Amino acid sequence: QEVTLRLSHWVPPTIAPASRGINPWAESVQEASDGRIAIQIFPAQQMGKAPDHYDMAAQGIVDIAYVNPGYTAGRFPIFSLTEIPFMTDDSVGAAKAIHTWYSENGGLEEMSDVKLCFVHPHAPGALHSKVAITSPEDIAGKNIRPAHATMARFVSLLGGGPVQVPAPEAREALSKGTAEAVTFPWGAMYDFNLTEEVPVHLDMPFYLSSQVMVMNKNSYDRLSDENKAVIDEHCSPEWSGKVAQGWADADMEARDQLMADGQTFNTPTEEEVAAWREAAMPLIDEWKETVTARGGDADSILDAYKAALEANDAAY
Amino acid sequence: MTNGFIASGGFVVLFALMALRVPIGIAMGIVGVGGFAMVVHPVPAMNLLSQSPISSITDFNLTLIPFFILMGVLATNSGMSAELFRAGRAWLGGFKGGLGLASVGACGGFAAICGSSVATAATMTKIAYPEMKKAGYPDAAATGIIAAGGTLGILIPPSVVLAIYGFITETDIGMLFIAGVVPGILAVLMYMLTVRVWYGRHLPPADKFSLSEGLAALRGVWAVGLLFIAVILSIYFGVVTATEAAAVGALLTAVIGMLRGRLTWSTLLDSLVEALRTSVAIYTVLIGATLFGYFLAVTQVPQEITTFLTELGAGRYGTLALILLLFFVMGCFLDAMAMIILMVPIVFPVITALGFDPVWFGIIVVMTVELGLITPPVGMNVYVINSIAHRVSLVTIFRGVLPFVTIDVLRLILLIAFPALVLALPGSME
Amino acid sequence: MTIESPNLRPIDRVVQFVERIAGITLGLVTLLVVASAIGRYGFARPLPDAFDLSRLILGVAIAWGLASVGWHGTHIKVDLLAQAVGPRARRWINVFAWLVLLAFTIALTWKIGNRVEAAMGGGDTTMDLRLPHWPFFAAIWLGLVAAVFTTALRLWRVLRDGVDLGEFDGIDESLLEDQK
Ligand code: NA
Ligand code: NA
């Protein structure tokens, strides 16, 4: 063993994003390096708060960090395009698409302090509620816990109230009536014990929340050439697809289980789907404004994203 | 140098700095950053200071701490703590050791609207100590009773330490508060028993009870009752979150104080400043303990302790006893809150793996760190009483509180044997 | 201010002014959380950004409160040894303790200054209203700068006048005097 890399993330060590994404990735790195690289994993915010993780990697507090760019509104404007709902219905293709697109369309500048290792979305998340929500108008007047800053904007746009509580407190917020609905990946229904609070599900691919694994640049530069090769091999669109597959499988198993448990699944009509997509259009305009204001070519970045999703067979 | 060696060295330096009066939070912060620099590198260690302290002071989930502190300060400054003592005196004063019983009762009542043990002890020292002194109580008994009674501050809801436990373990803070009610009442009763049985014979005789005075005194404490009910019932019935209950409680205390003419704008302003200062002292410990926690985590010593405890094979209760013993010993040297921040992340995975209830363990662990508040050499309640009643030496107070330590251990065993005492009430929520 | 506290020296007045502003800020955050709760339950509409604003503003109040506590010496600390030794030794213990506090406060101010710079370039904002974070961080940093000054002044007073740390308002001693 030549080098120990410290990897920090903020999810409990046993749930899908860790057990079917992060941990297998780290094991593969260790194996592929014939044991020259050891990865020490610090789960569950042991080394810092979730929103601090990008800076922790950038500043070398840890070597590798798991980042949700959606936790820091305004920080990664280009990346936030991936948070806009109804762009994709397949997280595995989307993971590869985002990896390639982001690397070629400003991601290297936006996350210039770190090396991007993989993109890790869950299977498209859904809207889970106490009472049926099938069309955009149903959001008005409801308090909803959104997944990230962009979904918070979406809820506001539709006349709802976004309720910001950390994921582990979602159950408490729902049971107290502080929130009446949540946007979450399917697996979270079991991970956060929400099945009894929100047994009604809008069964359509709604939105993505994509984490990214990033590595401190110095930590990478210090590696020997053969170790660099191992890391490079593991920081690729293919690996983004692999880790996304692991999480997506877990999410789909959870969805099947919810169905088996007899929970309510509402499938929207084509008109309703069209109405939802239409309702999300202002988010794209807002995104363009932000990116343009920061000096980006919003239209070409957007086109490139759509093309990348098409190329990976993941467009909505 | 092995990481284990660096971690133990860190504790040695920490205790040395603390002994030299460096604020506890600052001592932990310095050792945390210094230790992180030794294990990792000095540059990222310093960078911890850019991240972690700002995260700590701007964390929404901790905002309930200053709100509950403010509620306690406002209650004191509008005379509610004095009223509690008067009511206790009117009803319990007739028994032998009546002032002592009244002090315990008033501590329990005040704990129901104040989130901090040190604040409860400080407030009650100012009110109850002069009265007991006047009645001829020995210093050891008078201060010991208040030091022990003060620990109720973090057991009876609201509680800063329970809130931090909930924050760290992601356990429902409201449920933890409700779980503290029955053990809190039990503690009041057991402390009263200790006053009667242990000190009773040596204490001077008591006042005569008069029903009219008793009733008059009760009229004074409606505000405390109203506040407790408003805060705790709204949490119990799930009307609001614990943070909102804290803010509403503080506002309500101010409004009641103003309506009764007990608070002026000027005392309100003073109360805000006092609450802020107390909160800052607490946040300093939070900041430091968090930094120290990152240092410990990076040495991997906590992970090794967890593995050791899991593989020990001491059985469920054997392992629990070991963990509590660890808390008890460390509690002699460390501040209650600092201990929760440092130790709970280490043992919590073991506790859940053993199948213990997180809410129940929260109460058990808070009762264990409570002991640390009254055991030498570092006992915050004893320090704060000493800083107010200057003439009573630390040693005298530590001696006076000893019988209560014994009874606390008994209560702990009782609640471990009968977890339903803790869990029945929160279990009935919704 | 001069009317109610005529005996205060200029530095005491400055600290008093600062801590009152910080105290009022704490009061405002309390009101904000209450208003947000009322908005949510009463009108199914939480105040926009109540979550981010209350935590950021409270952070500012806490940072300015550090200046107050650095001056008054009321940090949570262990007094056992300081009480056991004579006044001369105690003074040196106090000097050491406050020197360490000062060093830590300076380091913190420096590193949080870096964070403010980064935030000014980084574009972090609140979730709803998209208000930039950096003005709040800058206000936190200014509070820390104030804390460096008050801590240094306190250290100077400990060195020069030998004043002790901490100012708990003790019980009225005359009350106990009567009972002897
Ligand atoms: Na309490
Ligand atoms: Na102790």
UniProtKB/TrEMBL annotation, chain B:
UniProt-recorded Gene Ontology molecular function terms: transmembrane transporter activity
Topology in the lipid bilayer: Multi-pass membrane protein
Gene Ontology cellular component terms for the protein in this record: plasma membrane
Transmembrane regions: 12-39, 60-80, 100-124, 145-168, 174-199, 220-239, 245-263, 275-297, 317-334, 409-429
InterPro entries: DctM, TRAP_DctM
Alphabetical keyword list: Cell inner membrane, Cell membrane, Membrane, Transmembrane, Transmembrane helix, Transport
Pfam families: DctM (PF06808)
Main location per the UniProt record: membrane
Compartmental location: Cell inner membrane
Domain spans labelled TRAP C4-dicarboxylate transport system permease DctM subunit: 11-421
Family: Belongs to the TRAP transporter large permease family.
Role of this protein: Part of the tripartite ATP-independent periplasmic (TRAP) transport system.
Record note on quaternary structure: The complex comprises the extracytoplasmic solute receptor protein and the two transmembrane proteins.
The protein's name: TRAP transporter large permease protein
Native source organism of the sequence: Sagittula marina
Automatic annotation (TrEMBL), chain C:
GO molecular function, one term: transmembrane transporter activity
One GO CC term on file: plasma membrane
Subcellular compartments: Cell inner membrane
Main location: membrane
GO BP annotations, alphabetical order: C4-dicarboxylate transport
Protein origin, superkingdom: Bacteria
Transmembrane regions: 21-41, 53-71, 92-113, 133-156
Keyword NAD attributed: no
Keywords: Cell inner membrane, Cell membrane, Membrane, Transmembrane, Transmembrane helix, Transport
Stretches assigned to the Tripartite ATP-independent periplasmic transporters DctQ component domain: 30-160
Membrane topology: Multi-pass membrane protein
Pfam families registered for this protein in UniProt: DctQ
Quaternary structure annotation from Swiss-Prot or TrEMBL: The complex comprises the extracytoplasmic solute receptor protein and the two transmembrane proteins.
Family from the record: Belongs to the TRAP transporter small permease family.
Function: Part of the tripartite ATP-independent periplasmic (TRAP) transport system.
PANTHER family to which the protein is assigned, alphabetical: 2,3-DIKETO-L-GULONATE TRAP TRANSPORTER SMALL PERMEASE PROTEIN YIAM
Identification of the protein by name: TRAP transporter small permease protein
Organism annotation: Sagittula marina
